[in-house]
Design goal:
The complex is a heterodimer. By secondary structure, chain A is mostly helical. Chain A contains five helices and two strands; from the N terminus they run E-H-H-E-H-H-H. The mean pLDDT of chain A is about 90. Chain B is mainly α. In chain B, strand 1 and strand 2 form a beta hairpin. Chain B has 22 helices and two strands. Classes of the chains: A mainly alpha, B mainly alpha. Chain A: Keywords: Membrane, Transmembrane, Transmembrane helix.
Chain lengths: ~150, ~500
């Protein structure tokens, strides 16, 4: 995917969006006074600052020539994040070994390095290594890794 | 004499077998990740944070610090042999180091890098031992208003010295500060931005953000890039420098140590800026500036000494003020907090064993690194031939394990994925993730000191200019802001970073 929009413009939108979001969600937090600030005072000030900066970036992108974002490779983004999410969903009910295999396989698919035999060997090797190091060696509590 | 006793205490802590082992593990691991491009100390330290939770505080800090300066050493090996900086701070080393290696002087370049780093590390350790207690003494007089102004100064300084657009860097700091407000407000017990999720009440864990943005986010953008084919110098011989070589590199090394040591104190300054400035300085001082870029030993010695000195003096504001000057120092503060310790001037009196043990371990660590890096350089050369396709699945797996084991909470893994996506987006938009991390760590402290200062002064903002310490930091901040808009500095700053991308 090739994005021909200016990176300043998009960053400006992002900052404004985040600032606005924080103001909307935090709209019912008490503001308080300067001497006794409520929970909402500080986030409000920061959010306004963020929106102002976003505005500066948007204006700047319109008055002067700025860099385009350029090519974005969506495959690693989607597949790699998918793998991490899968790890999160699998780890508690299905255990670490399965979740770990999923991450390694997803990583190789994301990087266009997937070859069934090599990826499988690497995945199994890494999972065994991690169980030995983290679960037995360092005593971390990884689900379904204690067989005896 | 007190200094002597303190150092003695430090060595008695650092020399216990357990701390020696963890220190060694730290520098070994640091060297490995420094040698391997694509995995930095920030990601590694955040992955290991949950692991260090089980260790006693000194062992944990000693190991994490070892990773940090070990990575500086390891990064230069890759820079010299592959012309690929293993660490961002060794970008400069690659310029002349690789040229030396191509001329058959790989051994000399490696030895120069290691010895100059060792000289700088030794001197910087002494500086920390002398300066840190004095600074901590001063810091005990700091009130909330002073701390607020100090942190404001720290954030502005970090912005100036960061790469790329200043507006974007400030924006990322603000996003980080906003993320830091997530959780139950300590003063009023109001839940902020928790979306009703109970585990958000304590805020997002800092390691989740660090690992998401640095570990996962960076891997995504690395995979999107084109494959770098590596042509590296495999032959390393004549490791030991001759007397004539030592005479050539000792002065640049000392100058680099001095300059790097000063720049390391500044928030956001750190090793990268230190090595660039020293390179520029040496080129200016040299009688034969034409040799720079073609394998000048001074171009390796100065920057290597500078980045190591800066890496170590960066500990001074962290240990004495609780002020992180870089993402790695922010992680160190995170590690201290996980141990139930609050970084700041009182740390040295409360835990002298930790404070002086860490300082003593830095010198021991530097000594271990010279041994690891010179005789064992053959092993690192082999490590360089491990292809990246074997590495990144392992990095991802370690990240997942690291995030999960902070609280044994699968929700943290999902959050890390979200921050990974955000980190990738930020990188595509040319926004640096490090300022966000700094804002996230400093945000809660800034809010707390702001509220306390104004509570004491009954809402009178003059409190910030009435106190001399606070006023001086505000004046410094103001001066920095002027520098920020001054065209001359902007040009040089741009040039320094443009050279880095070549």
């Amino acid at each position: 995917m090739n994005i021909r929009l200016s990176s300043d413009f998009l960053t400006g939108l992002l900052f404004c969006g985040l600032g606005a979001l924080a103001i909307i969600i935090g709209s019912d937090y008490p503001i308080g006074t300067t001497s006794r600030m409520g929970a909402g005072y500080f986030p409000l000030v920061v959010s306004i600052g963020l929106i102002l900066l976003g505005g500066v970036l948007i204006v700047r992108s319109m008055v002067s020539e700025t860099e385009e974002v350029g090519a974005v490779d969506l495959r690693p983004l989607i597949v790699l994040l998918g793998g991490v999410l899968l790890f999160g969903f699998l780890i508690e009910d299905w255990g670490f070994p399965l979740a770990g295999l999923a991450v390694v396989i997803a990583a190789h698919i994301a990087g266009r390095d997937f070859k069934p035999l090599q990826t499988g060997l690497l995945a199994v090797g890494l999972v065994i290594f991690c169980v030995a190091l983290f679960s037995y060696g360092l005593g971390l509590n990884l689900p379904h890794t204690r067989f005896w | 004499m007190e200094l002597f006793n303190d150092l003695l205490l430090g060595f008695s802590v650092a020399l216990t077998p357990m701390n020696l082992v963890y220190g060694f593990l730290g520098v070994l691991l640091g060297t490995v990740i420094g040698v391997l491009p694509g995995l930095g100390p920030v990601a590694t330290i955040s992955i290991l944070l949950p692991v260090t939770f089980a260790l006693p505080a000194p062992a944990a800090l000693i190991m994490l610090a070892g990773i940090y300066y070990g990575a500086q050493y390891g990064g230069s090996t890759t820079a010299i042999l592959v012309n690929l900086p293993g660490e961002s701070s060794s970008v400069v080393t690659a310029i002349d180091g690789y040229q030396m290696a191509r001329k058959g002087q790989a051994g000399l370049a490696l030895a120069t890098a290691a010895l100059c780093s060792f000289i700088a590390g030794t001197l910087a350790t002494v500086v920390i031992a002398v300066a840190a207690p004095a600074l901590a003494e001063v810091a005990l007089d700091f009130g909330p208003a002073d701390y607020f102004s100090l942190m404001l100064f720290g954030l502005v300084a970090a912005v100036i010295l960061a790469h790329g657009s200043i507006v974007k860097a400030i924006g990322m700091i603000l996003v980080g500060i906003l993320l830091g407000t997530i959780g139950i407000d300590a003063n009023t017990s109001v839940e902020r931005f928790t979306f009703g999720v109970p585990s958000f009440g304590d805020g997002i864990d800092f390691a989740v953000i660090a690992m998401g943005m640095f570990g996962i986010g960076e891997t995504i953008s690395n995979l999107g890039g084109t494959d770098q084919s590596r042509t590296f110098v495999k032959e390393v011989k004549n490791l030991w420098p001759r007397w004539a070589d030592i005479k050539r590199f000792i002065r640049p090394a000392l100058r680099g140590t001095a300059l790097g040591g000063c720049l390391g104190l500044l928030p956001g300054g750190g090793p990268v800026l230190a090595s660039f400035s020293t390179y520029a300085l040496e080129k200016k001082l040299s009688k034969t500036p034409g040799e720079f870029g073609k394998g000048a030993i001074e171009g390796v010695a100065g920057p290597e000494a500078a980045n190591n000195a800066a890496a170590q003096t960066a500990f001074i504001p962290m240990l004495t003020l609780g002020l992180p000057s870089s993402a790695v120092m922010a992680l160190m503060i995170g590690a201290l907090m996980m141990q139930g310790l609050s970084p700041g001037p009182q740390l040295m009196n409360q835990r002298p064993d930790l404070f002086w043990g860490l300082i003593a371990s830095m010198w021991l660590g530097n000594l271990m690194l010279v041994i690891l890096n010179l005789p064992l350089v053959g092993i690192w050369v082999k490590l360089l031939s491990v292809p990246y396709r074997m590495l990144y699945p392992a990095i991802m797996l370690f990240c997942c394990i690291g995030v999960y084991s902070i609280h044994n909470n699968a929700l943290d893994v999902v959050l890390a994925a979200i921050f990974g996506g955000f980190g990738f987006l930020a990188k595509k938009l040319h926004c640096e993730p490090a300022p966000l991390l700094l804002g996230f760590i400093l945000g809660p402290m800034i809010e707390e000191t702001l509220r306390r200062a104004l509570l004491i002064s009954h809402g009178d903002p003059m409190v910030f200019v009435e106190r001399p310490i606070s006023l001086s930091f505000l004046v410094l901040t103001f001066l920095l802001l002027i520098v920020l808009v001054a065209p001359m500095i902007r040009v040089t700053r741009q040039r320094a970073f443009e050279e880095s991308t070549d």
